[in-house]
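Whiteboard transcription, Tuesday session. T.W. wrote the structure tokens on the left side:
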């Protein structure tokens, strides 16, 4: 049993790390709040004084604000649906005995380790190029006109790219959960006459509830700040401007740090609202 002295020593040794982590999180947040109340134009006069809530009003009343929020939530929702559904199917497939199972698992998981910028460039130039892309050649092979993905189906293209990158993560988590399922329970249900669909619906899917919750929560945190894929492919055009990309435009392209900081605060608020919603709706699985 830990004594009072050992607990005090543990707290003392952990204190530097805790202080460093708090500083790492709090300093950028405090600076963002500070600049959000100022008119700060680095290349056009620098610090021009306090403006109160003017930056917040300007950002939220911008014609691009609500469309960017809707685009962000649309991408997050579509990617979550695709990665969870396909992740379950892939995990069940990879759990089956097959030749070269280890190699197949590595190949399936590999895209998760590719940098977002690199994966976006690969999809843009190798797959979605309307002239020399693989999909264009496939369309021509079947006698159809190639699709200009990044202009005619821009949002769907972004969803496809991001889903490809995050599918291995979902598959890995769900595969681990499936492998922890008691095989005797499945064998007993099979002996009782339950078919494959019933075994999946009443045994496998409830068992995956906690794993699905973890996948949804972790992916949502990262997907709300999606940027690289959009920057490389469409540069925010054709209705693909997310809230994160809008903030980038305000800070770097417009050189308005105060306005961009106000957008950052809105992004934090949106992330917290989504997290609270998910914890209440989906996160109940963690208590069961």
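and on the right, the sequence the group agreed on:
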């Amino acid at each position: 049993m830990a004594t009072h002295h050992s607990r005090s020593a543990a707290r003392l040794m952990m204190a530097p790390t805790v202080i460093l982590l708090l500083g790492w999180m709090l300093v950028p947040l405090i600076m963002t709040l500070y600049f959000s109340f100022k008119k700060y134009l680095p290349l056009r006069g620098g610090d021009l004084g306090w403006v109160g809530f003017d930056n917040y009003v300007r950002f939220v009343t911008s014609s691009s604000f609500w469309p960017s929020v809707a685009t962000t939530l649309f991408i997050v929702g579509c990617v979550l649906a695709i990665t969870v559904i396909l992740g379950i199917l892939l995990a069940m497939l990879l759990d089956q005995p097959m030749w070269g199972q280890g190699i197949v698992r590595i190949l399936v998981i590999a895209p998760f380790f590719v940098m977002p910028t690199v994966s976006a460039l690969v999809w843009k130039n190798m797959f979605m190029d309307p002239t020399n892309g693989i999909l264009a050649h496939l369309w021509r092979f079947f006698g159809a006109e190639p699709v200009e993905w990044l202009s005619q189906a821009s949002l769907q293209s972004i969803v496809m790219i991001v889903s490809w990158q995050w599918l291995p993560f979902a598959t890995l988590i769900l595969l681990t959960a499936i492998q922890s399922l008691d095989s005797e329970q499945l064998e007993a249900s099979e002996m009782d006459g339950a078919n494959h669909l019933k075994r999946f619906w009443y045994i496998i899917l409830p068992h995956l509830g906690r794993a699905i919750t973890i996948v949804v929560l972790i992916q949502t945190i990262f997907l709300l700040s999606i940027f690289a894929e959009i920057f490389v492919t469409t540069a925010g055009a054709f209705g693909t401007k997310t809230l994160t990309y809008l903030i980038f435009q305000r800070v770097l392209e417009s050189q308005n740090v105060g306005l961009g900081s106000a957008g950052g605060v809105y992004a934090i608020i949106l992330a917290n609202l989504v997290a609270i919603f998910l914890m209440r709706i989906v996160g109940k699985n963690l208590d069961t």
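Someone added at the bottom: The chain has a mean pLDDT of 83.
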